[in-house]
Amino acid sequence: MSLTTGSRPDGTRPPAAVEEPAAAVAAVEATKGRATRGRGKAGKVPFRVRWHRDRALILMTLPLIALLLVFHYVPLLGNVIAFQEYDPYIAGNGITAIFHSPWVGLEQVERMVEDPLFWDATQNTLVLFVIQLVLFFPVPIALALLINSVIRPRVRAVAQAIMYLPHFFSWVLVITVFQQIFGGAGIIAQTLEDHGVSGFDLMTDADLFKWLVTAEAVWKDAGWGIIVFLAALSAVSTDLYEAAAMDGAGRWRRMWHVTLPALRPVIALLLVLRVGDALSVGFEQFLLQRDAVGAGAAEVLDTYVWNMGIQNGDFSYAAAVGLVKGLIGVALVLGANKFAHLLGEQGVYKK
Prior knowledge:
The protein is an all-alpha fold. The protein contains 17 helices and no strands. Helix 6 (about 115-135) crosses helix 11 (about 210-235) and helix 12 crosses helix 13. The protein is globular.
């Protein structure tokens, strides 16, 4: 006796899910069709759909984009004067003067390479960068770990507020505070004078200037730098700490095996950005103290560009120095980011 197609050997029919698998496949295909409805070729969402979906976010970013264009990208066009003998008075205004100034090619760059003052400023900049990288960069990490270990929320909030506050001070105020403490007429000098010791004045000591400006930067900005690290720590699951504690890990081992690995991507990212900013150790802080310790100790590339361009009116040469400084900064970011990829971190952007 022959069996009907789709029937079992005992003559009974299978369930609908087995008998008609094509219906289930059709349902899955219909679901996929609804999920990809409105998509263009290769599954891309058309611009009209994306605009309708994200128009609020796009409109919110337009002011920021406008600010970036006006204050960051449009001024880049002015770097053309680095290849000219720019004279702002050759025409009616400074912009039209660009089109009338003679071209000199790489003459300004050659002049920069032959200028010993440029190399002195570069040396000071690199020395200060290394000191601040070693002494300043780890401080926000240590402060973030310290605050994160505080259990009482009120104590943590007060500690954060105290550490954040100096960031909102201007450099004029920061240097004034240090002057009142470490200057020749400061608290320490007056106390030593009362005990027969005179001549104490750290604010005019050229040999200690690099350590002084590092201490000023730590006091002003270290507290603000912990915000990023605290945000990264807040994303760490408490289950990891509980599991480590159940395995017998103490406070230090939990910090070494749970907390620091969670911070490693953020540390790598900020380190890449800091390396890219190696030639920009500061401007206002050094300009305010330049006369006290002399140009030999306080001259960095930013103040050198300002002195040559604004004070001396040598705009083309200052633009050439700034352009070379920016190109080196880009190269440092790319190199540091490549090194971060070799260590298994994402860095500024993915591979």
